[in-house]
Structure formats: structure tokens, C-alpha cells
């Protein structure tokens, strides 16, 4: 996933325009009732890795402290676009083993994305339309994988130079459109990014009253202790309760049950997929 940049503080460029009938910011998981079920949530350790491991590795990793796994199920920006093992059957089998799943969609990236290997998939000239289209793609792919509505879909937006006004505006427009489309199909939109870029940007948008923001915040701040509630980029009461994931280490190698995998480490208190 993303890079963690140096601490920044600035007034951010915000796209506060909203098409007719836009939904509210919806910061936090949907409440039960009102015709919409609350998503299943998980508290504990999770890992994510570029290539979904074989089922046998997932079985052996039951010996670890991890209880959930992040999988890259779609998006044109995936580093591991050709998943050797990930399928509807794979998800069913790991679910039967007791694993909880965090579905990650790596779509188009910010026009001012930092990583050179993501610059070929930058957002184009119509970010709202593109975000809507990619949100629909995420929903379709999730359904094909047996990821049911009320599940979260996490949009991966790698670190970007959010203090560039026009770039920030286009990125926010894309994210909001993606969120709105995902919500319209009764999935829960989550957002992954660097704490000091995309996450700071989203929290400023929240404080400015911008609509159609993510319901769950997955923030990357490496080389720190796992901490869901002390993240300085987030307002204390924002994305609470059961709406945060802290990615606190990345590109580390672990071995469990005789199988070695390079992973990112996460602490989770957030929605997980319902499969079937």
C-alpha cells in the first residue's frame, strides 16, 4: 500500500459542490435499522499482501496472531493485477477457515500521486464521472467475488501532494463520486491512504462539511505502535466507532506454520466482508 509522508499542515483545496440529491457525509458505519443492515465488524490484527496467498498458506497462518486479511480484488491501479489464487472459491475457503476479509480496490490515483509506478493510472479530466464508473466497477467485481452488500469496499489512494489546490479538488471529487456509487448499491465505502496526505485531506473535508465522504478510514502511519484512537491526522471523534484501521508497518516478512509472506501489518476496528 501507500507511503507515509512527512507531517504537513495547511489549508486544503476542497470541492464542496455536490450533484443534485447527493448523500450526506456518512462518516462512520451505517446504523442498523432504517432498511439497511449494519456491516459485520472485526477487532484485532490483520495483514495485507500484494498477492493473495494460497489457501494452504492461509490455513498455516492460523497459527499467527492475525485474524483478518486484506485482499486486492479489483482496480486498474493494482500492483498485482494477476491474482494467482484470489477467486470466489478462495474467499469461501478462507472464510470457512475463520478469516475475516478486507476487500481493497486500487483504482485511478490522484493526479499528483507521489509514487512513480502509479502515475500511469492517474485520474483524468472528469474525476466525478470517472469515480462513478470505477465505483460501479468495484461493486460489480465485488459481487462476482461473492462479496455481499453491507460489506466494506476499501478504495486505495496512494500518497499524493494534496496541498496542490487543483489536484486536491480533482482527487476529492473522484473519491466522493466513488463513495456515492458504492453506497447506492448498499456497500460501505472505505478509504485507505497515507495519514499525512489522503487521510489529512479527508479529515479537512469532513471539518468543512463536504458530503459523500468515506465511512471507514484506513490510515497508514508506519514505524509507530498500533493505535486506532491517537492518530493526529484525524479528529478525535471522527470515524468512530468501529470505523478505523491503522496500518502501522509495511513490507515486513513473517513466517507462520512453515510459510513465509511479506506483508503490511494492521490493527483493525472496522467492517469486514460478508461472503456468500
UniProtKB/TrEMBL annotation:
Signal peptide (residue range): none
Residue span(s) of domain Rv2525c-like glycoside hydrolase-like: 60-268
Recorded superkingdom: Bacteria
Entries under InterPro entries matching the protein? GH, Rv2525c-like_Glyco_Hydro-like
Which chain positions lie within coiled-coil regions? none
Pfam families in the record, alphabetically? Rv2525c_GlyHyd-like (PF08924)
Name listed for the protein in its UniProt record: DUF1906 domain-containing protein
Give the source species: Streptomyces typhae
